[in-house]
Write a structure and sequence with these properties.
disordered C terminus, 18% strand, Isopropylmalate Dehydrogenase, elongated, alpha/beta
């Protein structure tokens, strides 16, 4: 086995994270596709394994040098925060603290080069806020932990990568934020991300905002005043950029292989396209960080937590993507700069 170890956080221990981590790690070890080290609470993993009725053992370790990565056994860097009596499916500060400590620990391991990537299970925003965090989620927290102000999101669906000019804001605010400067920055960051993960002279398509690409201003001027000029500036700088391309066709064209990536203009524009095509294996990769981080693109599913019914397909896809992109980790450190130790 030559694949570098990968840190896998359990997410919110009151959600489905420990269950989907247990199943995914068991599969990866059985298939010998990666060497995952679970970062979280051994107690949370034991009760998740019991809930799923899995034939797995938990091996608590204090460091990666103690991990054996053997099929049938889950190596857990045991943080011991939540215990084994945490209610399933409820928001709590204890669960939030457990999730935060797992992320912080895994990030330090990646910054120190002990692991090649971090794969994260879902967290609950209310829980981490109750634990004292002020961050909106994983992406913002990882940016703070690594000292990066460039963190953003890339979806991987089949061979297509999807990026976002705007994300967590209302649709009205997102439209107001579509400026030539913002779209131009997103174009450059998207192209850089594609280059970092191995695309040579990547071809990026930029989605239009309005129906039919605005129809020359009849359906809105964002394409004329912001998106189009940003695309023209990028092409003048030598980048392979197409657009603005009407959003009702650009994702289909990308999935057919015409483009390496698509820059969507707002959150749901890209999310709907990816999840409609393949909800179960769409993977989120955080770009702009000096570490490699992949994640599921769904939440904690409190309504089914503890039942053993949660599908682990997206979590397994995130773990496989981390192994796939692991060779790019040194390049990420080089391009995105030295990280600040938390």
């Amino acid at each position: 086995m030559t694949t570098p170890p990968i840190a896998v956080t359990v997410g919110d221990p009151a959600g489905i994270g420990p269950e989907i981590v247990a199943r995914s790690v068991a599969d990866a070890l059985a298939d010998a596709t990666s060497r995952p080290l679970v970062v979280g609470d051994a107690a949370a993993m034991r009760r998740a394994i019991a809930a799923c009725d899995l034939d797995l053992q938990v091996r608590p370790v204090s460091g990666i040098d103690e991990a054996a990565f053997t099929p049938g056994t889950v190596d857990v860097l045991d943080l011991g925060v939540s215990g084994d009596d945490l209610p399933w499916g409820e928001v709590s500060a204890i669960a939030g603290r457990a999730a935060l400590e797992a992320i912080e620990t895994a990030t330090r391991l990646a910054l120190d080069g002990v692991v090649s990537a971090v794969v994260t299970a879902p967290i609950n925003k209310e829980a981490i806020w109750a634990a004292g965090s002020s961050h909106l989620g994983h992406t913002e927290l990882l940016g703070a932990l690594t000292g990066s102000d460039r963190s953003s999101t890339m979806f991987v669906v089949d061979d297509l990568k999807i990026f976002f000019s705007t994300r967590h804001m209302s649709l009205r605010e997102a439209i107001e934020q579509i400026t030539a400067e913002r779209v131009g920055y997103a174009i450059r960051e998207s192209v850089t991300a594609l280059e970092v993960i191995g695309h040579d002279q990547p071809h990026l398509a930029v989605a239009a905002l309005n129906p039919h690409g605005g129809e020359g201003g009849s359906f809105g001027r964002e394409e004329l005043d912001a998106i189009g000029p940003a695309c023209e500036e990028a092409r003048a700088a030598g980048l392979r950029v197409s657009g603005p391309v009407p959003a009702d066709s650009v994702f289909h064209q990308g999935l057919q292989g015409r483009f390496d990536g698509v820059l969507s203009q707002f959150h749901d524009q890209g999310h709907i396209a990816a999840k409609t095509w393949d909800f179960d294996t769409t993977v989120s990769v955080t770009t702009g960080l000096p570490i490699l981080r992949t994640s599921v693109d769904h939440g904690t599913a409190f309504d089914i937590a503890g039942t053993g019914r949660a599908s682990h397909s997206t979590m397994r896809a995130a773990l496989d993507a981390a192994a796939r992109f692991a060779p790019a980790a040194p390049r990420m450190r080089e391009v995105y700069g030295s990280a600040a130790r938390a």
